[in-house]
Amino acid sequence: MFFLVCSNLLSAQQYDVMTDIIEQNPEYIIDEFYEIERDKKGKANLVLVVKSILNGSEKTTKTYYKGTPFFKDIEWAKATVKMPNQINSIEGYVSFNQVFQQIKFKRSLDLPTYQEIVPEYLTLDTLTLVTFPDDELLANGYYTTTSVAGLIVLKKHSKYQRNNPNQNLKGYVIDKPKFEAEFEDAPEFYVFKDEKTLRIEKDNYFYEAFGVDKKLAKSYFKKQKLNLKDEADVVLLLGFLSK
Question: What integer pLDDT is reported at residue 176 of this predicted model?
Fold first, then answer.
């Protein structure tokens, strides 16, 4: 009789404990990761996938973001990386977050782990991106270089995140057109001139560095409807300023 009472009491206690756990924690996350989905037009969107257990059953939710922060909208791309103080470059896969200018590296796609690196340069999608850690204006970024009108021009491959990038991404409701967070290309261009690094922009100081009258330069800029996120327009401006 005593055993039966204890057994019933123990069962009641176990039941109460489990009930409390379910009531206090009706849902808990078992996996969380980002993936990239492409729409019918091939446009890539970032998706946060969360898998959870809700009252004993598995549940999957997806939160969508317009675009991605990654280079060429590929989270892991094959690349060759040259690290500072290393003689030989190494091959592997990199994740280049263009919002934060952050490079993650792993030797193989199958590896679950990665490391954050700051390479001296890397070759990615036939482009060679270099760093300038000792230049205060260029220190945080990865650039390709080209020659325009006898000048060395640098293109910073960056993106802009429309919500506050210091906050967690909020995503958007899939049946509504408004995105809480979206990513768009926002390249920046710089030029080496007279041993100085200048950001290419339409401010007076930039025109004065070329010895061109600022009113004339602004008139040209307005007439040509230049967009300094467009590399072709940057070439036009530098050609005009270098005459």
Answer: 44
Q: Is 1 helix (H, G, I), strand (E, B) or coil?
A: coil
Beta-carbon contacts of residue 154 (< 8 Å; ≥ 6 apart)? 138, 143, 144, 145, 189, 190, 191, 192
CA dist., res. 122 & res. 141, Å (int): 12
Q: How is 18-71 classified by DSSP, letter by letter?
A: HHHHHHH-SEEEEEEEEEEEE-TT--EEEEEEEEEEETTEEEEEEEEEEB-SBG
Quick one: pLDDT at residue 44? 93
List own/partner pairs for 230-239 with CB under 8 A and 24 or more apart. 231/155, 231/187, 231/189, 234/148, 234/153, 234/189, 234/200, 235/148, 237/200, 238/148, 238/149, 238/151, 238/153, 238/191, 238/200, 239/148, 239/149
Residues of the chain with pLDDT under 70: 1-25, 163-180
Which pTM was predicted? 0.79
